Amino acid sequence: MLRYLIPLAIFLVLVVFLFIGLGRDPHEVPSPLINKAAPTFRLPQLKEPAKTFSAEDMRGKVWVLNVWASWCVSCRDEHPLLIDYAKWGIVPIYGLNWKDKREDALAWLDELGDPYVLSVSDFDGRIAIDYGVYGAPETYVIDQGGTIRFKQIGAVTPQVWSDKIIPLVQELNRQGASAK
Amino acid sequence: MTRLLFLSLLLLCITPSMIARDAQPNADDPAVEQRLHKLSQELRCLVCQNETLADSRADLAEDLRREIREQIKAGKSDKEIIQFLTARYGQFILYRPQVTPTTYLLWFGPFVLLLGGLFVLFHFIKQRRDSFTEKPLTADEHRRAQELLASLPGKETS
């Protein structure tokens, strides 16, 4: 009896492991930046290049940084969702325009709408490297102290937005309010 | 005529990828390039995950090579550069991840499996050998065997 049960047990264990493996996206590499300080930057704003924006400017606020580019196909899918999320007004969304041409980026915002409080231009992708970006869109939730609390690789689906990001933002805001 | 055809076919084989093969080999400092090449062969391109950073022509790989090149020129050691990259992209960027508690399973798992397999194998062999060992026949069995042999037709027994 045992001689049949043992191979069966091994087989079942293998099936379980393979099944779990199937359900995972190999492109989702866990970010080492979670719960680390968000890399600082000072970059020109997309719409008004004479002005700059820095992660430091957001100290004391919970905010979302979304990495996007006009050449990025998934960003186009994500864009209407971001416009929706921005309307909810729960958390300000800032854009990091990654390795894009300024005119392309501006045309994209004109055509599809602009969910961002503002976007900054990372023309040569240096800041994106600091943020460990390897495939747009990527989205970060950064807390009052400038710590990255969440990272989404790929489009922020409505499910991720309402199940992960909103509860996190609300929790952070609550903590921030009680700390004051 | 055939020669001309052959020649034009040959020319067709020259694709742009053959012409623009390496990603901007920076000729101004071969030593830097050599270190960059060696280092980037140990690193994974995160866009096309089965390619090294040295081989990949993805945009990000180009950016990362530029970053590494600049750091080499700035006098950073290989270790510092790898630290810089893993702080941003995690262990996954390394083809040979460092030995840390999170990668113990990765590094030692195969050996554990090997030991387990050897254990099972030895156990199995031992069990089989035990079942084969010859026990001397008892007097009774010996007599029966003799009888059986004697009863075989056409065979003389001593």
Structural description of this entry:
The complex is a heterodimer of chains A (180) and B (158). Chain A is α/β, with parallel strands linked by helices. Chain A has a single domain (32-179), classed as Glutaredoxin, CATH 3.40.30.10. Helices cover 42% and strands 18% of the residues of chain A. Chain A is built from 5 helices and 7 strands; from the N terminus they run αβββαβαβαββα. In chain A, the strands form 2 sheets. In chain A, strands 5-4-3-6-7 form a 5-stranded mixed sheet. Chain A has a two-stranded antiparallel sheet with strand order 1-2. Chain A is elongated, with a radius of gyration of 20 Å. The mean pLDDT of chain A is 88. Among the domains of chain B are: 22-98, Helicase, Ruva Protein, domain 3; 101-133. Chain B has helices at 2-13, 16-19, 30-40, 59-73, 78-89, 104-132, 139-151. By secondary structure, chain B is mainly alpha-helical. In chain B, helix 3 crosses helix 4 (59-73). Helix content of chain B is 61%, strand content 0%. The chains are: A alpha/beta (180), B mainly alpha (158). At the A-B interface, helix 4 of A face helix 4 and helix 5 of B.
Low-confidence stretches of chain B: 16-21
Helix content of chain B: 55-70%
Mean pLDDT of chain A: 88
- Report how far the terminal alpha carbons of chain B are from each other: 92 Å
What percent of residues of chain A are in strands?
A: 15-25%
Structural class of chain A: alpha/beta
The gyration radius over C-alpha positions of chain A equals 20 Å
**Range of strand content of chain B:** under 5%
Spans where pLDDT lies below 50 across 5 or more residues of chain A = none
Largest interface: A-B, 19 and 15 residues
Oligomer category:
heterodimer
Q: How many individual helices of chain B?
A: 7
CATH superfamily grouping of chain A: Glutaredoxin
CATH architectural label of chain A: 3-Layer(aba) Sandwich
Main sheet of chain B, how many strands, which sense, barrel?
none
Number of E-state strands of chain B: 0
First and last CA, distance of chain A? 67 Å
CATH level 4 superfamily of the domain at 22-98 in chain B: Cytochrome C biogenesis protein
Dominant shape of chain A = elongated
Shape of chain B: elongated
